[in-house]
Amino acid sequence: MSAKSHVLAALEENKGKNVSGSKLADELSISRNAVWKAIKVLQEEGYAINAVTNKGYCLSEQNDILSEHSIRPYLSGRTKDLRMEVHKSVTSTNSLLKELAASGEAEGKVLIAEEQSSGRGRMGRSFYSPANTGIYMSILLRPNVTVEDSLFITTAAAVAVASSIEKITAIPSKIKWVNDIFCNDKKVCGILTEAGIDFEAGGLEYAVLGIGINVGRPQGGFPDELKTIATGIFDSSLFESDVRSKLIAEILNRFFDYYDNLHEKTFLEEYRNRSFLLGKEIDIITGKEIKQGLAYD
User: Fold this and answer.
1) Burial call 51-75: b when 16+ CB within 10 Å, e when fewer
2) Cis, peptide link before residue 178, omega less than 30° from 0
3) Can you name the residues that pair with 209 across neighbouring β-strands?
4) How confident is the model at residue 238, as a pLDDT?
5) Under DSSP, is residue 249 helix (H, G, I), strand (E, B) or coil?
6) Alpha carbon distance 289, 287 (integer Å)
């Protein structure tokens, strides 16, 4: 890691506490000037770091910039070994990770962004991905499953996201088949799983699991076309400083618990219990044909 990354990790570990520059320099085996330069770069990137004479540097507890160091403390078990990259802004985490997958990147790579300029949803739709209020992440998987069973990756992810939202925020979450998460009767999350097919083996070469979550409502609100259908988990762009980091980690922890035993489908009962379509009349749309039916299971 760079000096900047080491300094950020130390400040994240002591968030809200003063850490002396000399102590940082000694622990990281770098000069105090290198520490000062790293602090300046972090401040320019938006980190709320206060410098107090004779006390050192303090990362504000209200700091809400996502970083690998803000997320890792909340990971457990095998997710501690995930290879994580966090970016300020990207076109699409799914698109970038698919490129890495095609070039041979191993399972366990996670891309996270504060903002997407070309976020994507199902059916070629765009996914609104403004800065600072959301979670946009993609996970590279290389599952040993058939194409049919790969559908359960999305199902497992939906349960992991919904249950994680409830645990971290105490806000009830429901699932709309097959890939949308709702809070307070509006969509807060979309899930998009894209795959590369191994035609010879009859299974997947890779799967890229994309998860986009509106943690808060963006300043200025959602675009007109989304106002009636989308919301944030929280009513505003203000929320507890670590909530996004905690939510990312909780989702990863829960998802990989399901994924490592995907064939057992232990998540299906909770998926049914969280579905708000079961027992309701629905439209079944095939091309231009629309039929009515009852969502039974």
Assistant:
1) eeeeebbbbeeebbbbbbbbbbebb
2) yes
3) 139, 193
4) 65
5) helix
6) 6
